[in-house]
């Protein structure tokens, strides 16, 4: 079971799915600049760094960032902006 890395989100792969509630889970980008943006959006401790299999759920991305062809994919320029904790 993996949990969304955004602080206080609580969505996880055991209780959420696309078929059940329309939620998908996505790994952090490999590009260091984009990864830094995702890390900042998580609102975790300043020293926190995501593990290699860390996930973020689709609730934190606007619909325009998704490509739906054979399967749901998050576009390369996706930036998390929704339902993020306030500092």
Radius of gyration: 12 Å
Average pLDDT for all residues: 93
Would you list the SSEs in sequence order as H and E? HEHEEE
**Biggest beta sheet summary:** 2 strands, antiparallel
Question: How many domain regions?
Answer: 1
The shape, in one word, is globular
Structural class by SSE content:
alpha+beta
How far apart lie the N and C ends? 27 Å
Unreliable sequence segments = none
Sheet with most strands: strand arrangement: 1-2
| Helix count from the secondary structure assignment | 2
Q: Which percent bin holds the helix content?
A: 10-25%
Strand percent estimate: 5-15%
Number of strands: 4
Organism: Loxostege sticticalis (Beet webworm moth)
Domain THAP-type: 1-83
Keywords: DNA-binding, Metal-binding, Zinc, Zinc-finger
InterPro entries: THAP1/10, THAP_Znf, THAP_Znf_sf
